[in-house]
Design a protein that fits this description.
- The structure is a single chain.
- This protein is of the alpha/beta class and about 200 residues long.
- The protein has helices at about 45-55, 60-75, 125-130, 145-160; strands at about 1-5, 30-40, 60, 80-85, 85-90, 100-105, 115-120, 165-175, 180-190.
- The protein is elongated, with a radius of gyration of 21 Å.
């Protein structure tokens, strides 16, 4: 399976950066999150609370917290979001896993919406069938996770008809003025390898 490396940045994780919030001396390896405060003034209060609640009460490693916040911001269309490493205060050691209050600072950046999805080099399926593999709707926020799942469904569609060597190359075009993204998906279908299940 060939998917353009240029698309990987959508799912990469920003390197942690420290933040001054009277942190404890050393971060535990694994903690239970008693409360989480997301410091990101650019976000709507409802979005901040939604992201914080997705982690509250969970037991995880510090880098997992950072990854979840990054993922949730990208699901809201903030593709260039930068997330600092978590800082802990008010640690309680009730069990072998400490319970902590967590502070995470994030800089969301611009919020993008999906303007269009186009396909090039695709002929094995109707274009509307290819488009239906992507649940992301035009005009809605550009959800990187939903786009990634769309590529999985697209590959599975081709493989179900014997196109085992299909390759897809996504190209993103940003409109910085209108904060939109147009996505062109180049498809290298190859030749189908027919079997008893694909005939």
């Amino acid at each position: 399976m060939r998917i353009a490396i240029a698309f990987v940045w959508l799912f990469s994780i920003v390197t942690p950066v420290g933040m001054a919030q009277e942190p404890i001396a050393a971060q535990p390896a694994q903690v239970q999150i008693r409360s989480l405060t997301l410091i990101a003034n650019e976000l709507q209060p409802g979005d901040r609370l939604r992201i914080a609640r997705s982690l509250r009460g969970k037991t995880c490693f510090p880098e997992e917290m950072q990854a979840v916040v990054q993922r949730d911001l990208r699901q809201l269309g903030y593709l260039d979001a930068e997330v600092d490493g978590p800082q802990f205060t008010a640690t309680q050691k009730i069990s072998s896993i400490p319970s902590v209050d967590v502070y995470i600072h994030a800089s969301p950046g611009l919020q993008y919406r999906l303007k269009a999805v186009r396909f090039e080099g695709a002929s094995a399926f109707p274009l509307d069938q290819l488009r239906n593999q992507f649940a992301a709707e035009t005009g809605r926020v550009f959800n990187a996770t939903a786009i990634g799942k769309g590529f999985e469904r697209l590959m599975n569609l081709y493989k179900s008809k014997g196109y085992l060597n299909v390759g897809v190359i996504p190209k993103l075009e940003r409109d910085e003025l209108n904060h939109t993204i147009s996505m062109t998906i180049g498809v290298d279908e190859g030749k189908p390898q027919l079997s008893s299940t694909t005939r």
